[in-house]
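User: Fold this, then the next.

Assistant: Folding the first:
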Amino acid sequence: MSEAQPGTTHRRGRLLALAALAAGAGAAAWSLRDLPAAFGRRPDAAREARVRNSPQYRDGVFHNAPSTVARAGSAPDIDRDTVRRMLFQREGRVPANPVPTVRPATGPRPAAEGVEITWYGHASALVEIEGTRVLLDPVWSDRCSPAAHVGPKRLHPVPVELEELPQVDAVLISHDHYDHLDMATVRRLVRSQSAPFAVPLGIGGHLRRWGVPEHRIIELDWDETCTLGELVVTLTSAHHFSGRGLTRNTTLWGSWVIAGPTRKVFYTGDSGYFEGYARIGEQHGPFDAALVQIGAYDTAWADIHMTPEDAVLAHRELDAGLLVPVHWCTFNLGLHPWAEPIERLLVEAKAQAVPLAVPRPGERVDVDNPPELDGWWETVG
């Protein structure tokens, strides 16, 4: 066999390099193929009138209600010091050991006749209330990001596959940030569930782009209510913001009142502490339980995320019974140590005599008979 000439070898090397480069570019393009769709869509033109007429909408965007008690912050602006801490303040922000999960029971079974809550991690949870089921802010992707291979990665596996969930009566979305509204999860739910999506004003545009049928989209403004059989859900206010790209606040954000015939549950969504909690408690309370955001807080954005101490204060003003903390554990979205939110919450809840349940991801909580605190996070962080 004759040896290849130096020129031939060089040309082959160039061809191989070009082929590798083309393959890499192709792989990158394939991984980003859904990026435009993941950004969602601004409110549809046919529905602009309802958006414009919202008391929360002016100058082309939605606004928080005026507040005299909201903590000082600059969200969504971030200064140089915050960027420095994001880049270099990393110690303890992810768990040192695997987060324990519980695989919930699967298969057909009736919904709880009382009130039971299954937390799947971060803000995703299933609320069973007097024979109905409500799925909150479901995110089943590995990352909360518009791209499948970039962005905050899940710190523990999902406790159960999305398709194994029982049939639900409603899917509630609090706002359109990636850690609360995930395109891939929505598309899977279109196939595996038949329930409607109840969302704040403007988010219907995202859902329509992702293939959710019109008859399964319910858009609400603050203090608007939807009745689904014996289940009544009401969108209430929150102190936050929205946006999936460079454009901010073209969709509304909120919290949720979930009511059966005699029992009620509240979900904060994402919010800074504000006087709205006392008003919600007066109008809709008392609540059997509240799922309250406790993580990803910082002084730089104190107006849009509560600290654990804020969470206890809000819980008391809501006139709620059992506090179930959410928005922690699953994604590294804050600058605090991984277990700090729950540790601070325990101290404040004890000081204020607030009953607390801290389930493992996937663990089911009977609100009338909650599990004892066992400190499972202490061996993880």
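Now the next one, as you asked:
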Amino acid sequence: MKSNPKPTTAIDAPPLAYRTGQAAWRRLGSLGALLLAALGGFLATPSYAQEIPTSPSFVDDFKSFDRARWYVSDGWNNGSHQNCTWSKGMVELSNNVLSLGFEKQTLKDRDYVCGEIQTKQRFGYGTYEARLKTDTGSGLNAAFFTYIGPGDKQPWDEIDFEVLTKDTSKVQVNAYIAGKGKNEKLVDVPGGTENAFNDYAFVWQKDSLRWYVNGQLVNTITDPAKLPSHAQKIFFSFWGSDTMKGWMGAFADPGRKLSLQIERVAFTALGEPCQFPESLACSVK
């Protein structure tokens, strides 16, 4: 623990002007991701010819909360499968770690509140990385993923890391293309997702999609029919379900506030140099 810890500060949601619609549906059986953020302008990366436009490379180590980059979901839920309401109060910054919380607290028509952030910009081919630590608990989902869909007037494409915290020894990787999934795979996380920060990354290229855990390749897709083809927003979310027992486990009140902690997130556009020494983009092309 660092000396002179900074006080934990809740992140206020941006003004309603950032919202482009009401809460949109997202896939049943996984994350709620509604896409109500302002559409980020696409800036093509000049150093590499790409068929998918992308916003520029970035690294965010959460020394502060970048409101130009992140939109905080607040005041809705993603459907009957979700037992919590997104709340800006569940997004907190402390000691260079951003935490998304899950806690018993009545808001709207739900008995629990939960946290989600998403980028305002969309990103294309490149290396996506996040350094995360989860909590434990059945019936909960802690996720790092990219998504675009009908809420943004685009086909539904998605690339996932999802920790179903009923079993923190594994993480589920998956991809959805034009709304079609069935690409999921459970992979091991040595030491568990809750005992230390772990590095999760995927490399998205025109002809392949590869997932990595702590620098180790854990899954590859090369079938063109199973590869996303639309620029996507980056999401982090932590939510629960009373109904999705077969996938997430039976939900039980954890009796305390739980959290998904994010220490760093980065996107390195295809062809760009790596941005920090530990980046997967330094060693994997």
